[in-house]
Amino acid sequence: MTGQRQPGWLRVTDETPPSGAPTPSVTVAGAVARTRATLFDALTDALDLPGHFGRNWDALADVLADRLDVGPLTLEVTEAGLLLADEPPGQLGTLLDVVGGVSAGAREPVRLVLRDTPQRLPALRDRLAAVLGGCGVAVSPRA
């Protein structure tokens, strides 16, 4: 995914998730999603995906689009600096492409919230900027 600015559906933060968020959300720990295979496993569990989920990027786009037909969704990744950390950088870019593509065509909004500690956010921002075509990645300020 390339572009001049951070997409509106992406949030990078060190804030604690708010309780009682109005948009249904699912949480995946980056520590258990260091590879594409483990990310698909974690999303299968978190989203209660069907057994026929193909565990590839196209299948993920399809199931996210289907899920958004019933309402908005926030995907939260804790320890986000570890997300796809054992994969080539392009895999993180592909994940962002999938979420961005689904966001562009969905009736309901999807958000990807990447949470980590203040100490690990600079490295995460650098990884994101590299796959977002060098654009700056803002970290949401604390309330």
TrEMBL record:
Positions of region (Disordered): 1-24
InterPro entries: Barstar (IPR000468), Barstar-like_sf (IPR035905)
Barstar (barnase inhibitor) domain: residues covered: 25-103
Family per record: Belongs to the barstar family.
Entry protein name: Barstar (Barnase inhibitor)
Organism the protein comes from: Micromonospora rifamycinica
